[in-house]
């Protein structure tokens, strides 16, 4: 019997992580990705934080990952409060046992791609259109448009893995009514490049105001708003600033919004009012800041369909707000668990039992993490948290409740459970 084949829709972090894990279970993998090419490196995307569990899993796929220079420590999780009137700062909550690492999204993506095993084929510039799971076969047939030529191709496999992100079209075919839920705020984001400018006034002053940069994940809270600041490898500072407001209109399927010069100008002026002069200056001098509209979705009740032939992973499975630094970490753990489950059940004729185990292991974890990230975001933005007082958290008066701000309040903070080969009720065509 030949190798089993998985067709993965989406070749971002979740898709490439699945390619590693599923190939590791002895499968062949075909990835369909609409982008024309892999990330070239740190210039694509911005920064992300990896937990110890993800670092360990990724190091199995990428030799040297973690001991090379591609990540920086985030050993301290620090929440501070800035008084916008006086610009004075005070510490709210500090955790010195954080054990995360900071990386460029583009570096992680490039390295995941470079180290793919020979059993994986990535078809760049292939836009997934639809799939069929014919009743008379055990397999799935995916159709994709080749963007360069306009023609279509088919990819046939035993399993379709949907890693097509928070607006997943595969998910839509099973859950047409599921809508993403607007969080109530958007994030301005930027990456400040200080190569060759370490001793500039901007860098000297920002390091004075945030002296633990390079080892610390800073959350800076002001009244009903907060910013995030940390250092990335190769002389970059990554910042985000969350601003409450009505849901903006978005073009197409992207949650990233084009920022006009006028919007950037207004944002920079507002930064002077809210933040300390050092952070406002960093924001002012960052080239090409952009806006992410922040969404999540209520946790799904299942992650696989079609009698165990289609499965969701990554943001397709659990769109989440970014406050628990979960998206990438959940994607890595999804991929690792899926690979383990397929390996556990490799002797079965179909992946149905493997997917039952995957769903049973991952659903409770991701559901809790998505809801906790939602709550953490609302807390930090001073918005009422479900079922609580209208006023929301007020950073100017907060006392004991500041301990809730720490990242370690995230469920499964110390690591999510792995698959162990347990038998779970079959994911059947009855559901
Ligand atoms: C270019 C890029 C840059 C990013 N930068 C950052 C960052 O700096 N920091 C951060 O925290 N997160 C970033 N993210 C998001 C981050 O990757 C995810 O939040 C998380 O890692 C989960 O990844 P995912 O693979 O599930 O989803 P996503 O990263 O959203 O990937 C979904 C993938 O599916 C592909 N896709 C969608 N529809 C189709 C289709 N019909 N056919 C073929 N392919 C399809 C998309 O092109 C995309 O590559 C970025 C994502 C992208 C795509």
UniProtKB/TrEMBL annotation:
GO terms for molecular function: FAD binding. Keywords: Signal. Residues 1-21 form the signal peptide. It holds the Pfam family FAD_binding_3. Gene3D superfamilies: 3.30.9.60, FAD/NAD(P)-binding domain. Residues 6-173, 304-369 form the FAD-binding domain. InterPro entries: DHP_3-monooxygenase, FAD-bd, FAD/NAD-bd_sf. This is FscO. It comes from Zea mays (Maize). The lineage of its organism: Eukaryota, Viridiplantae, Streptophyta, Embryophyta, Tracheophyta.
